[in-house]
Design brief:
Largest sheet: 5 strands, parallel
Radius of gyration: 39 Å
Shape: elongated
CATH superfamily of the largest domain: Histidine kinase-like ATPase, C-terminal domain
Bound molecules: adenosine-5'-diphosphate
Strand order of the largest sheet: 2-1-3-4-5
Helix content: 40-55%
CATH architecture of the largest domain: 2-Layer Sandwich
Order of helices and strands: EHEHEHEHEHHEHHEEHEEHEE
Length: 381
């Protein structure tokens, strides 16, 4: 169906000259007229074609009159929506008008018709038809688009699952051979301690260093692919306890950096206990790690908002340039060379996954060279 197609109008009158004068009266390049000289012929046409915008039908016709024809049209599922305008001589008005509306007419005009009025009326129905056709096309397009979208997101979900399965299996299975490589190199180092030249010792150190880094990457990858695998149901989790546990886990780094940590009163929420520890720990250890040289000051704040708990972890560290504020949540995205700040660039990707599993969002606000504040929400149901 196209919106450019001519609008079809069916003219039904037993008098050919009346049909002709109607045609002349309504002449418009956007209209296409089909003609029938009896009720039967009109019905025969309507058996084949249902896409009329309007039927103009004369009431007084021999055999099947206009009303009877309209009645039969109204009984057909496919045709009953087509508007009908009855045309009649003005002598038998009151009775017929009533009869006409009973048969489902939408309008009634007395002959001789006033050209401007009939043109205006036909134009209204033609426009109505065009608009509803347009809507129908839009609806069909929308349905097709929706179907495509559904298909795409199914494909995406499937390939995501495949990828995660792959990441899980690969990282899980790579741990063992890597452990073997690291321990044998360390064994070789011990065995030849002092008896190999300095260059060789340096190379061995590089190999062990790279091995440890690879182990960190693999563990990060494994942790990442596990982040939405955890199947335990959420429980009531006291965030004060989470905070204490994280402080205990990070105590070495806190002491070494002389970090000052401040924390609001934290709520009890419905969440995964282990993942909340992971989330707070990743963000707090980053807040300490990415310091500017001065003593790291970390502030954990909390606010209840509509439908969610809103947490924030602010620091006075190096900050993040605006163009990187979304990218840092991607896997392996790091903004500094390895020697400058330790890390593999998986922590924030894991945080994002955990937060999304808790129907929340995570984002960062920052002033470069002044500090960053990471915000995240956790759904309250
Ligand atoms: P990692 O800490 O292992 O490098 P993350 O995924 O935790 O990986 O962080 C990704 C990158 O985001 C970091 O390498 C760092 O460049 C930046 N970043 C994260 N947290 C902070 C922070 N608090 N201040 C400044 N930069 C940060």
């Amino acid at each position: 169906m196209s919106t450019e197609q001519a609008i079809k109008i069916l003219l039904v009158d037993d008098r050919k000259e009346d049909i002709l004068s109607l045609e002349v009266l309504l002449a418009n390049p956007n209209y296409k007229f089909d003609k029938a000289t009896s009720g039967r012929e009109a019905l025969r046409i309507l058996l084949r074609e249902y896409d009329y915008a309007l039927i103009l039908i004369d009431v007084q016709m021999p055999l099947l009159d206009g009303f009877e024809t309209a009645q039969l049209i109204r009984e057909s599922e496919k045709l009953k929506h087509i508007p009908i305008i009855f045309l009649t001589a003005n002598n038998d008005r009151p009775n017929n008008i009533f009869k006409g509306y009973q048969a489902g007419a939408v309008d009634f005009m007395i002959k001789p018709v006033v050209p401007e009025i009939i043109r205006a009326k036909v134009a209204v129905f033609a426009e109505l038809y065009r608009k509803s056709n347009e809507l129908l096309i839009q609806k069909q397009n929308l349905l097709v688009l929706n179907k495509e979208l559904e298909q795409r997101s199914e494909e995406l979900a499937r390939s995501n699952m495949d990828l995660e399965k792959f990441a899980y299996v690969a990282s899980h299975d790579m741990q063992e051979p890597l452990r073997t490589i690291i321990s044998y190199i360390e064994l070789i180092q011990k065995k030849f301690n002092g008896s190999i030249d300095k260059d060789m010792e340096k190379y061995m150190d590089y190999v062990v260093g790279a091995g440890y880094r690879m182990r960190e990457l693999i563990m990060g990858l494994l942790e990442y692919s596990r982040a939405d695998r955890e199947e335990k149901p959420f429980t009531e989790v006291n965030c004060e306890e989470i905070f204490k546990a994280v402080i205990a886990n990070l105590h070495r780094s806190i002491e070494e950096n002389k970090a000052v940590i401040q924390c609001d009163k934290l709520p009890v929420i419905k969440a995964s206990y282990m993942q909340m520890i992971q989330l707070f720990q990743n963000l707090m250890s980053n807040a300490i790690k990415f310091k500017k040289g001065t003593v790291p000051q970390v502030k954990i704040s909390y606010k209840k908002i509509e439908g969610h708990h809103l947490f924030s972890i602010g620091d006075n560290g190096i900050g993040i340039e605006p163009e990187y504020r979304d990218k840092i949540f991607e896997m392996f995205k790091r903004l500094h060379p390895i020697g400058e700040y330790m890390g593999v660039g998986i922590g924030l990707a894991i945080c994002k996954k955990i937060v999304e599993r808790h129907k929340g969002k995570i984002w960062v606000d920052s002033i470069p060279n002044n500090g960053s504040t990471f915000y995240f929400t956790i759904s309250d149901n």
